[in-house]
Amino acid sequence: MANTIDPNIWSFIKSLNIKLSNFYVKIYSHYRTFSMRIQRMRGNPHPDVITAPIAIDPNIIKKSNKEYVDVETNEGLTRGVTIIDYVDPDILLVTINLTPKSI
What is the DSSP letter of 33? Predict the structure, then answer.
């Protein structure tokens, strides 16, 4: 799965032992346990791979557009998928350029 925090990445984040990494471990530990035990994933998904860096440094946004965004909540293969309606703008969608230095 894309954007999964596997055991190696999880260990790396924990080893940083700084304010942000400690906060991340604290807020994602429960979610990670659920993902690995119940959903049988090899780590935990991290849906905030775009929003977290933006919250830390909004200057990494290179372009933004208002778009209508919805999340599929029905059971099935598409559950959790983000749907973007480019015809009816209503919510901010961002395109960013992430580099190791910007994270």
Answer: H
DSSP state of 6: -
Report yes or no on whether pTM surpasses 0.85.
no
Q: Return d(Cα 90, Cα 79) in angstroms, integer.
A: 22
- Token pair, residue 91, equals 């919510």
Question: In the chain, how long is the greatest CA-to-CA distance?
Answer: 45
Tens-place pLDDT, residues 6-46: 888 899 989 999 988 888 888 888 888 888 888 888 887 77
> What region, left, alpha or beta, does residue 28 occupy, with left being phi > 0 and alpha being psi -120 to 50 degrees?
alpha
Nearest alpha carbon to residue 90 among 63, 70, 61, 60 = 70
